[in-house]
């Protein structure tokens, strides 16, 4: 039975214009070095420049892997929770969202799951599939929420650092397996963001 392995990563650090910085390129290079030990078949990336540039750096370490854009990986709000579902600290974030915007985000989120969060077809053979997805904070959170079978509003607060690695495995007939979330072990301390105080930055 083949397994689909998804290696999810937020893009490297970017500047205020959404372009990859020198720090972001170094982070992406180290992520690529880590993934080089895996037989990656494809590197998919968001259409946005910071993700495309990160994917190009990562792919240098993955000879033979296909590199391509996937519209479903674009930065988007996957689910706008009802007021009763929204933590008080997030309430202001959703001010001004109308129904059309919310529906559009959910369609993108559903398309993301349909395209990437599915196991290989039964009878597809015994060869595992290894795919890298270079995307953004919210799509990673949505795919993790989906893997855990959590309510849709639980994407809130699942934060990913720049080039942190999240791994999900998908097998036919079984629930998804979250192997690791937001792993930064390939980055030195000065390139990490952990969420803890101490002078760190989160570009």
Automatic annotation (TrEMBL):
Listed SUPFAM superfamilies: Phosphoglycerate mutase-like
Keywords of this entry: Hydrolase
InterPro entries: His_Pase_superF_clade-1, His_PPase_superfam, Mito_Ser/Thr_phosphatase
Protein name, as recorded: Histidine phosphatase family protein
Upper classification of the organism: Bacteria, Bacillati, Actinomycetota, Actinomycetes, Micrococcales
